[in-house]
Amino acid sequence: MSIQFWTHSNWESVQNESVLSILNTDVIYFLNSFSKKITNHKEIRIFPEVASFAFFCRRSNIDQIFKHKINDDKTLQIGRGITFHIAPSNVPLNFAYSLVMGLLAGNINIVRLPSKNFRQVEIIIEILNEMRRDSKYTLVLSKIILIKYSINNIITDYFSSICANRVIWGGDKTIAKIRESNLSPRAFDVTFSDRYSLCIIDTDQLSQTTEIDKLALHFFNDTYLFDQNACTSPHTLVWTGDEQKLEISKQIFWSAVKKIIKSKKYTIQASSVVDKLTYLYAQVIDEKIDSYALHGNEIYLANLNKLDSETLESHINCGYFNEVYIKDLISLSTILNSPRIQTISYFGVEKSIFAQLISENGIKGVDRIVPIGQTSEFSVVWDGYDLVNTLSRKINIY
Amino acid sequence: MDKQLIEYLPYELDKIRKKEKMMHELRVLTSYHSSNCASYNRILKAQKFNVEKLKHISEVPFLPVRLFKERELKSILDIHVVKVVTSSGTSNQQVSRIFLDKDTALSQTKVLTKIVSSYIGPSRLPMLIIDSPEVIKNRNYFSARGAGILGFSIFASKVVYALDSEMNLNEQVILDFLKENSGKQILLFGFTYIVFECFLKKIQQSTFHYDLSNAILIHGGGWKKLINLSISDQEFKNQFFKITGIKKIYDYYGMAEQTGSIFMQCEFGFLHAPIYAEILIRRPTDFSLADIGEIGIIQVLSILPKSYPGHSLLTEDEGVLLGEDTCLCGRKGKYFKVIGRIKSAEIRGCSDTYE
């Protein structure tokens, strides 16, 4: 294990660290300064996701997000203790968002960093070390411990035994592995399991839009930017609206996406191409599809005979999309009933249809519904958890 | 059509004559599998492929070789299956299953004989197999390794296994074999990785001297693992020569999915396509054909697979085409090098935390 950042002398002092009230003013002040320092970092231009993180931490953004939290003098909301965060190994900044949630919830945070060496992570650590020189930040910095370690049950056991809650990113296998380490009786897990997402586009709107390039760029950011491997990335495209406009809409949409792929210089690796081709032919053999369209090896479009759960939960990535036309979105209700469905991104669909679809049918799946382009934007409500509320506790005073 | 390709010598046709004959056989095979394998037929239909319009070898549809691991593909009835060859490749879980009927198995043997005889001569040789006899114990269910050993055993006047069931060197057996055949030409056969790890490295440490100056070593199928140990083909040969005096070492490139029509290495270290097989190098960006000297994904074609639709396969290996009909060794046909396995992608995303 290597400790990347901490201000303590031993683990006992970490356990003796006090908690803070939620949305603590020192935390918000700290995050705002943190944001400024990140924004001023000389490498910020190279890493747009670091810039987005800095943007997220600004006071005005935090105020905006939590403005609905009305102070109620009968309720005190405060941290629970130590939050043990297990961040995904292959997404650079997920750990940082998770940490911010823990801080806003008033907790002490032990964060297992990604195992890969990302420059983005180093930048964050550099800035934290710099802030250490200023006593204004001492209080908040004492709530932050960043560590790196490879698979090690003893370390995981220890942190699990001392934490009040554990936030596990990284999918089913990670969750199963981490759960081999017991929590104390009062502690609990917040888990982010394997999820699947889809995208819905209305042909009437698509065929009329004047902003197709912008839409294509947004779609690119949702999918190709992370090789279609984020759980929020759609693997299935549901086309709805006028069936007469289906072919022209597909043509407009995919040629715009192809253009973006080219201008962004997205390159596909040979092994991904082989994976995609194997998957495509297996789908043909299994009679899931009778036809398909390829736009180079970057875009594989499988023309689904019908949408089923198995297809919706496919893992295939790097530019593989199942397409299906559905006239009436209400007929999606059966398929969306799986708790493994996470994000619906949409274009040109009336928002009210979703509320109707989900509440009237009592659907178990779907935790987020966002316009195309916003799937990977971090939100304090994630997978249905309001993170600050979940990680903290409420005390009623009568 | 006059003489069939299988009747010709492995490297005797130049590109124009080869192309004409091969194209004919590939067209017949594509059409045959399309009529006899429902899954293959679906794949051709989905890409709106028309056999009638097939003109160039590069237009023959190719199946990714891993598809044979994920789905059962055959063009014969179950009652005609005489052998099932399995291959795990390097991806860990599933194995490919290749279904052979009598005809396909026979033509595999015939073609392998023609290719290998052109290297070792027409007569059978005393043969030392660098493996354990355990590998071929279950004859109903062949591993690719077992199938390779049995396939090459046809060149043997006598077979001796160099390793015991625990893959340890059987020194007494080997020394007796060498003594008995001293002065005679002998054949050594094994899988590259096993030859290197369990034979070469061990005789290097041995107190005995192994004189293999009259031997021919044919090895294949194991470079993928050797590349991880980063030993080059040339180093492998140099080390072998230094320890045993062996001069004739030939690597071959082949796969269980196209047994028989293997690509043998020549004296200059290049792999050669025999007239029964062809190699194409494709760009990963759009599957267009790579230029000579340009690295790409290897596609292999063979006129042998009749019982299963494996006559045109996209491998998971990278290679580079070096030329056609112009190798200094005098063999006609394309010659190339295998670079190694395509690297598994570094995928960005949020799954797979715990490593």
How would you describe this structure to a colleague?
The complex is a heterodimer of chains A (398) and B (355). Chain A has two domains: 2-193 and 383-396, Aldehyde Dehydrogenase, Chain A, domain 1; 196-371, Aldehyde Dehydrogenase, Chain A, domain 2, CATH 3.40.309.10. Chain A has helices spanning 11-16, 25-39, 48-57, 59-66, 94-104, 119-131, 138-141, 153-162, 172-178, 203-208, 212-222, 246-263, 270-285, 309-312, 352-361, 387-391, and strands spanning 2-5, 75-79, 82-86, 108-112, 144-148, 165-168, 188-191, 196-202, 234-240, 289-295, 299-304, 320-325, 341-347, 368-371, 381-382, 385-386, 392-396. Chain A has 16 helices and 17 strands. Chain A has a seven-stranded mixed sheet, sandwiched between helices. In chain A, 39% of the residues lie in helices and 21% in strands. In chain A, strand 6, helix 9 (172-178) and strand 7 form a beta-alpha-beta unit. Chain B folds into two domains: 1-61 and 264-342, Luciferase, Domain 3 (Luciferase, domain 3), CATH 2.30.38; 101-253, Rossmann fold, CATH 3.40.50. In chain B, the strands form two sheets. In chain B, strands 1, 4, 6, 7, 8, 9, 10, 11, 12, 13, 14 and 15 form a twelve-stranded mixed sheet that branches. Chain B is globular. The N and C termini of chain B lie far apart (59 Å). Mean pLDDT of chain B is 90; it is low at 350-355.
